[in-house]
Amino acid sequence: GAVVSQHPSWVICKSGTSVKIECRSLDFQATTMFWYRQFPKQSLMLMATSNEGSKATYEQGVEKDKFLINHASLTLSTLTVTSAHPEDSSFYICSAREGNDSPLHFGNGTRLTVT
Amino acid sequence: LAKTTQPISMDSYEGQEVNITCSHNNIATNDYITWYQQFPSQGPRFIIQGYKTKVTNEVASLFIPADRKSSTLSLPRVSLSDTAVYYCLVGRNTGGFKTIFGAGTRLFVKA
After folding, report:
1. Which residue, among A51, A105, A43, has the nearest Cα to A73 in the 3D structure?
2. Which residues in B have their CB inside 8 Å of a CB on A?
3. Would you list the DSSP string of chain A?
4. pLDDT tens-digit profile of A23-82?
5. Which helix (H) or strand (E) holds B62?
6. What is the mean pLDDT of residues B56-72?
7. Which of A25, A49, B11, B85 is 20 to 30 Å apart from A92, CA to CA?
8. Which of A31, A34, A105 sits opposite B46 (nearest CB)?
9. Hey, are the CB atoms on A103 and B49 less than 8 Å from each other?
């Protein structure tokens, strides 16, 4: 089946630094990928839609300059949390569809802790 | 986007059948119903998807009435390892369709 891989699975960084999270579709191509954020005991919140070869589309309230998304190829999207602060600590999850008529497949998430 | 409503939590015992019902009154004609399972610190895992009537796979069944305004995920003979959050999602399966998560149902399976 379709596999979405995220890297790293966890990262700890200092306040003010930037962190890049990679999302790869391992055995299929994805023109669109989605980034979610999840706080403890809460549901997933859609942050942005990553579009291959064009700009990402951000949900209301998500700062595009803080959460930089790059979808440079059909199998890779990256999310960079710039100038991270403790309130950015969260679980970040990406997803993609293998094609039309396919459900979303999710990566295993990245736990970001900003100290 | 069709909104979904599920029970916040459910308790069960090992070996029992668990049915989780999801309401989606404003489901659109082209929308599918998809259920996911999520364990702590992991991404959601696809369980089952359907459009109408009944769908069954090796882990679950999905019952969808004719009006499609609700659906029921049935987990046969649950075990402790089925303790997780279950999400009911409604939407199209086209590549760029945004999927919005509801609160989900926390299932606790007891010994």
Report:
1. A51
2. 32, 34, 36, 41-46, 49, 87, 93-96, 98-104
3. ---EEEE-SEEEE-TT--EEEEEEESSS--SEEEEEEE-TTS-EEEEEEEETTS--EEPTT--TTTEEEEEEETTEEEEEE-S--GGG-EEEEEEEESSTT--EEE---EEEEE-
4. 999 999 998 999 999 999 999 999 999 999 889 999 999 999 999 999 989 999 999 999
5. strand B61-64
6. 97
7. B11
8. A105
9. yes
Q: Do A45 and B98 touch (CB under 8 A)?
A: no
Q: Contacts of residue B88 in chain A, CB cutoff 8 Å? A: none
pLDDT tens-digit map of B17-34: 999 999 999 999 989 999
Query: Do the chains contact at B43 and A30, CB–CB below 8 Å?
Result: no
A113 phi/psi in degrees, rounded to 5 = -120, 120
Q: What is the pLDDT of residues B67-79, one digit of tens each?
A: 999 999 999 999 9
Q: Which helix (H) or strand (E) holds B64?
A: strand B61-64
* Cβ–Cβ gap A108/B42 under 8 Å: yes
